[in-house]
Amino acid sequence: MRFFIDTRGCPKNTVDSEALEQALRSAGHTAVSHPHSADVVIVNTCGFIDVAKQESIDRLIELGRDKRPGQRLVAAGCLSQRYPEEVSADLPEVDVAVGVDAWRTLPELLDTGNPAAIPVEPVPSGSLLRFPASLSVLNQWPASPRKVRGPSAYIKISEGCNYGCTFCAIPIMKGLYRSKPLLQIIAEAKQLAHFGVRELILVSQDSTAYGLDRKDGTSLATLLEELAGNVPDLKWVRVMYLHPDRLTPRLIERIAAVPSFCQYVDIPLQHAHPDVLKRMRRGHLIERTEEHIALFRQLIPHVAVRTAFIVGFPGETRAEFDFLVEWTEKMRFDRMGVFTYSKEEGTPGAVMSDQVPEITKERRRKRLMETQAHISLEIHTRLIGQTLTVLVEGVEEDSRYRHRQGTSVDLWSVGRSHRDAPEVDGTVFLRGRHSVGDVLTVRITDVTAHDLFGEVV
Ligand code: SF4
């Protein structure tokens, strides 16, 4: 059977789609590059916040509208996991809804080998994996070989989350925290490095909790140390989603000592005002976070620190928001994402009083992003004349860049430095054509608040 997978949402969904693709290939099905030529079109949906949910729903409706006779449309992933009945009832174009473990359930469903034979009526919600479920199923991890798509690759090191942040629906969709076996991660990393991957990006909901649920001494630090020892070809191991509440000076010292640890830390803080953090049930104290970030900056001199904030959480006063802005001016983050609070049913925040008007949320998001843009430009301007290590990812075809710097540059290659995680941070444009996967030393010659421009030394 020919299938096409459309991925929405976060890098964890990208990893899940890859696992699903490999599972379907191993079951003898064929991946096609366009939905029209597929017998089964699968949308790996996102169910995190309103805008992301709407994007998935719009895509399902769009693909549903273009469905050929006999073609089947599958809604997989977080949206189906969170709203199985609604997906089946409100989206008649969807033939099958499967949850976040599609890699495990969909091959069985497709085994009929004839798309028309796939059950047309929605699968009764009872059969969808719901949380809590039997641990044995929860602890199954896709084991199929990874497909390499460039010089960097994601590895999802765990699933689920044990925190109960009052704005977050992820535990509803993903269940409790469980770590992927360390040996399986090492094997996957070796395979990826063998096929030319130079940067590994570790993703999860809470990377700092890695291994703790296994109670066998495994931890994020041991994982990074084992990766450095067993997969020496990796240039960078980048860790996303460090939970501020679990950081300790000992963990930071061990992480900082790992040679392949990328000089980049992603610590989603969500807010800075103590009262807002309490209402969010984030658990961390801002003073301790300041100490931890200072320690990272002391132990890793050129470390880039990324964070993310939610503005407009219920009850957020003007004073609490101003505190956040002033605090970010003091902390001077290298990279930042700012989101407006999304009222998610089933979360405590959704029933809190003093919901902030959308226009106020948007105004606050804009102001915080503008504050950060100034800081980023100042930080980038100080990089002019300095050199950075850059991983080349491709060539920039966009002619807008050709005339940058007043001279006509025929070709720019694009890459990222240690300061840039894929999809969320900036790009380094370097003159000339360079090979994908090259790791080059680049002297920075020009900057914007988001991107850098340079030439190979
Ligand atoms: S730690 Fe992250 S994933 Fe877990 S509940 Fe909080 S926001 Fe959600």
Describe the structure.
With 457 residues, this protein is of the alpha/beta class. The chain folds into 3 domains: 2-126, Rossmann fold (3-Layer(aba) Sandwich); 136-381, pyruvate-formate lyase- activating enzyme (Alpha-Beta Horseshoe), CATH 3.80.30.20; 387-456, Nucleic acid-binding proteins (OB fold (Dihydrolipoamide Acetyltransferase, E2P)). It has 14 helices and 18 strands. The chain has helices at 11-26, 50-65, 78-82, 84-90, 102-110, 135-138, 170-174, 182-194, 220-230, 249-256, 274-280, 286-299, 318-331, 358-381; strands at residues 2-7, 30-31, 40-45, 72-77, 96-97, 152-156, 158-159, 178-179, 199-203, 236-239, 261-266, 304-311, 335-340, 387-396, 412-417, 428-431, 439-447, 452-456. It has a 6-stranded parallel beta sheet with strand order 6-9-10-11-12-13. A 5-stranded parallel beta sheet has the order 2-1-3-4-5, with helices on both faces. The chain has a 5-stranded mixed beta barrel with strand order 14-15-16-18-17. Helix 1 (11-26) packs parallel to helix 5 (102-110), helix 8 (182-194) runs parallel beside helix 9 (220-230) and helix 13 (318-331) runs parallel beside helix 14. The longest helix is centred in the last third of the chain and has 24 residues, at 358-381. The chain binds iron/sulfur cluster. Iron/sulfur cluster (SF4) binds next to helix 7. Iron/sulfur cluster binds at residues 161, 163, 165, 168, 170-171, 205-206, 243.
